[in-house]
UniProtKB/TrEMBL annotation:
Name recorded for this polypeptide: L antigen family member 3
Oligomer status and interactors: Component of the EKC/KEOPS complex composed of at least GON7, TP53RK, TPRKB, OSGEP and LAGE3; the whole complex dimerizes.
Record region (Disordered): 1-25
Subcellular location: Cytoplasm; Nucleus
InterPro entries per the UniProt record, alphabetical: CTAG/Pcc1
Keywords assigned by UniProt, alphabetized: Cytoplasm, Nucleus, tRNA processing
C-alpha cells in the first residue's frame, strides 16, 4: 500500500513545495492511496463496493476512486482538516470491512 499526503503550507523562505493551491489561491489537503489486490477483478469488486454511487460534495471533501490494473487508487482533496480526516477515517473503516469480507468469502472465480 502506498500513501502520500500534502498539507497546506504558507510560503516562506523555504519555498512552497508542500502545498496544493487551486486557481483561486486556496490551500487544500491532498491524500492519495494505492492498494494492490491479487487481481484486477478483486480491485474492481472493492472499488464498486466502496463507491457504488458518486459521493455528493459535502463539507468541501472530494474523493475519487479508480482501478488501474490490480490497484485501487484513491485520492482525497479537502479545504478543512477536520472534514478531511473524518472522510479518510470513515473510508478506511469501510475498506477494512470490504477486505475482511473478500477474505472471508475468497477470490471470485468462474461460475
Amino acid at each position: 500500500m502506498e500513501a502520500s499526503i500534502q498539507r497546506p503550507h504558507h510560503p516562506g523562505p523555504g519555498g512552497d513545495s508542500n502545498s496544493t493551491v487551486d486557481n483561486h489561491g486556496r490551500d487544500f489537503y491532498d491524500f492519495s492511496l494505492s492498494i494492490p489486490f491479487p487481481s484486477p477483478m478483486e480491485a474492481e469488486i472493492a472499488c464498486r463496493s466502496l463507491d457504488p454511487d458518486p459521493e455528493p460534495r459535502r463539507n468541501g471533501v472530494q474523493r475519487e476512486l479508480t482501478v488501474i490494473g490490480n490497484k485501487l487508487v484513491l485520492h482525497w482533496r479537502a479545504e478543512e482538516a477536520r472534514f478531511f480526516q473524518a472522510s479518510i477515517t470513515t473510508f478506511l473503516d469501510y475498506l477494512a470491512l470490504v477486505l475482511q469480507t473478500m477474505e472471508r468469502f475468497g477470490s471470485p472465480g468462474p461460475h
